[in-house]
Amino acid sequence: MIRAYKFLMRPTVGQQVALSEMLRDHCSLYNGALQERRDAYQHASKTSVRYGQQSGQLKDIRAFDPEWQGRWSFSSQQATLRRLDKAFAAFFRRIKVGDKPGFPRFRGANWFDTVDFPKDGDGCRWDSTPHDPVTRARFQGVGHVKINQHRVVIGKIKTVSVKREGRKWFVVLTAEQSRPEPQPATGSVVGIDLGIASFLTDSNGVHIANPRHARKAAAKLEVAQQALSRFPRRRAKDRTRNHQRAVDNVAQIHGKVRRQRLDHAHKTALSLVREHDFIAHEDLKIRNMSKAPAPKPDLEKQGSFLPNGAASKAGLNRSIADAGWGLFLAILNAKAESAGREVMAVDPRNTSRTCPECGYTAKENRRTQEKFHCLSCGHRAHADVVGATNVLRAGLVRRDANQA
Known about the structure:
The chain is of the alpha+beta class. It folds into two domains: about 1-175, no CATH class; about 190-404, no CATH class. It is about 45% helix and about 20% strand. It has helices spanning about 15-45, 50-55, 60-65, 75-95, 215, 220-230, 240-275, 285-290, 310-325, 325-340, 385-404, and strands spanning about 1-10, 115, 125, 135-140, 145-150, 155-165, 170-175, 190-195, 200, 205-210, 280, 295, 305, 340-345, 370-375, 380. The chain has a seven-stranded antiparallel β-sheet. Strands 10-9-8-11-14 form a five-stranded mixed β-sheet. A two-stranded antiparallel sheet has the order 12-13. A hairpin with a 3-residue loop joins strand 4 and strand 5 (about 145-150). It starts with a strand and ends with a helix. The relative contact order is 0.10. The mean pLDDT is about 90.
């Protein structure tokens, strides 16, 4: 079982400069490899350049530029080229299934914020001893950097990554662990219904309010973005102090919202895992749910379009993104795996339109956002509780089918 750990780094001023240069040089390597692939396809009779060919050129690149590219870890540079190769693999996969292709793009200095080290001890080393109060990580070309290790790392470290978030630096570890002992069984099963009005409603009738972190921070973010918009767009090294301060202010607000959303998801998932042995949830296609509506051309007026509800849909999309369903479900599955619990995703269709008493399904059963009234048997309940109940039943049926 693979688990990730994220710790705050405490680099010195000189180490911060070295870390920034490391990101810059890896970004340059990524963009250069992307340009080579584009040129080979456009000007060399549609020739495809593979990862193996570009990785084989690394020795020559390092020898040609020993002062910059040559001082960083060879393995980390290979990992950067693999990242580009994965981007192209995803591009061709999307073409194959008919999705929007999304050709790999060049990365700006602020869009390349992570360097990966595929193996502990190769270009980096995690140095954590039980009796040493200070934890350090050594990176080739940077040195030994102090780490704020707030928890014990369990298992064998597999990969190490350096990540920049605003003006803060983090180290991300992945460790291979043996499967832990499952938590004592509670004998409880539950179905959950994710929504906007309430973040989560379970089949027992418990409602967890939607914190709406982004909406609460919208006023501060608007002021900060207006202040930032007064400065002309410049590269990071050409910014004035006031410009950089405005950039940092926007980044701090976004960072706080992200941390609040992450904290809420962890606490909610932990409470579910501790209380229930089996958790069923809807298999939500969040990307499809948050797509913008297609434009409707006006056939009578060339070049004009009919109203398609894009403005109201944009508000719903912001609420979906603010709720963070995908993040919550990923955390729920990870915690359930560690605790020996079972999580099951079921088809969400008609879960809030089907009566849990008689099974009658109709759109009219759900009168409003909250009210459910069955037209067949007259059953009344909260619509989200009905949805969670039907999700639980579908999950139990699927679990029994899998066991059989």
